[in-house]
């Protein structure tokens, strides 16, 4: 008897949870699959993060994660890692979609790299991330691929030669100055496009496409910005 009662109570409880889930699901569908929203209440308290960020590395002063100017084409994206995947596809033998944790399951590297925006400001940040070369091992890139096109949650895109990525051992960062990237800074992943101007440092990466279109032009490149984007041409 006792057992039956318990089960009954549990069912009732489950129904309430189910109802809540349904409401949540419907609102997620309504507000765009829950991968992003414009709710300002989800804004990070960046000032709070400055209390825990690393300010110096090997004797070198670092910039703060508040020293960036937020001027992304559609404002910050709020990505939910419960539904997020990073897809690597295009000219590959084995396209893959990795969860956030699966990406983080790779060897991690740290490096101080400066981001220079064409607007004239720059920041020295300690980045922690995963080598693109390591991620590429799983997909088996086809011979004809010479270009890597990065796509983002906000519709932004940019590209780099595959050779550049391999030669310079470029990485995607998940941490900056020792803290997990806040949404405003590109959570879950930002490309650390070392020696390239800020518009190559794509944030909120969702898809990495191997291509043979060496002339592909990303968002700012289409609008007249140099496709090479070298900091020191
Ligand atoms: N997805 C996405 N990534 C982006 C941008 C953007 O608008 N969307 N802006 C780029 C530019 S111009 C710069 S300078 C760097 C740093 O921008 P932030 O200061 O807004 O973080 O992010 C780059 N990555
Ligand atoms: Mo920029």
TrEMBL record:
InterPro entries: OxRdtase_Mopterin-bd_dom, OxRdtase_Mopterin-bd_sf. Residues 79-220 form the Oxidoreductase molybdopterin-binding domain. It holds the Pfam family Oxidored_molyb. The lineage of its organism: unclassified sequences, metagenomes, ecological metagenomes. This is Sulfoxide reductase catalytic subunit YedY. One of its GO terms (molecular function) is oxidoreductase activity. Keywords: Oxidoreductase. Its EC number is 1.8.-.-. It comes from bioreactor metagenome.
